[in-house]
Amino acid sequence: MKKREKSAMTAQNISRKLRCPLCHEAVEVRELKSLVCVNNHTFDFAKQGYVNILKKPVDTQYDDALFEARQKIICDEKLYAPVHDKIADIILNHSAEDSLLFDAGSGEGSHLQTILDKVNTETLTGIGLDISKEGILMAAKNYGNPLWIAGDLANPPLSDKSCKFILNFLSPANYSEFKRILAEDGIIIKVIPSSGYLKELRRELFSGTEGKEYENNDTLELMKKNVKLVKEERITYTKFLDAAALKDLISMTPLGWHADTAQIERFADKGNKEITVDMHIILAAAEN
């Protein structure tokens, strides 16, 4: 079966949880080729196995090189493995029967696919959405099981109260939409950096500036204003990365976007460097 058809079948199985991004009416899958709503708005599945619902192309700073570096760091180096394990445990500790795991800001899909692999149940369907078509294209090429959508977090094609789990991993949030699509017993799983996250890289690239230190207070306060926090947990650990992996790390993070070549080479050439991962995992529910 071709990737287009596999993706269309995934959408068909959860079609009652989807809605048209234009008129917000119900949709159906026709001939394993297109999503079509009652008003005949039509969105075709690409041959690579994703669907594009963006009204127009969007330019982002995320390119193929960044996504390739990100995939290497996530899948080959397994930099976030303890975080993925924790998220999988959270999902397994809640009923995942006939449930959606919506990755809001999925990029090239490695976080979502890794977590789905760890949960390992056919009753949980993954949906990855990102505004970067390049990221979604790479996700669809590499991972066939989730439904991959190029779209905007301000207008996800999901029905009200359709998602048991919303994953927001180092990505901006849209809390008004999160609250709309979150199921009555659903949870938001938001992952944000804590103060020690990539501190070695931050200190190298931002030495002598305010950028070398980081606090997540603003992100936490914004979240508290919009949703009900249920539980918070901090995970901190270190991992050694060689020179090639360090260059990938710099390439995948916004911290490296404004670094010059000399800074990058100086940091990466040290090789086999201990890197700190310091994450804040926050579980939240929609406000009553």
From TrEMBL:
Example GO BP: methylation
Give the Gene Ontology MF terms in alphabetical order: metal ion binding; methyltransferase activity
Give all residue intervals belonging to the 23S rRNA (guanine(745)-N(1))-methyltransferase N-terminal domain: 19-54
Keyword Secreted attached:
no
Q: Which domain of life is it from?
A: Bacteria
Q: Keywords on this record?
A: Metal-binding, Methyltransferase, S-adenosyl-L-methionine, Transferase, Zinc
Q: Which InterPro entries match?
A: RlmA_N, rRNA_m1G-MeTrfase_A_prd, SAM-dependent_MTases_sf
Residues binding S-adenosyl-L-methionine are 80, 108-109, 197
Q: What Pfam families is this protein classified in?
A: Zn_ribbon_RlmA
Q: Which residues bind Zn(2+)?
A: 20, 23, 37, 41
Q: What is this protein called?
A: 23S rRNA m(1)G-748 methyltransferase
Provenance organism: Jeotgalicoccus halotolerans
Q: What is the lineage of its organism?
A: Bacteria, Bacillati, Bacillota, Bacilli, Bacillales
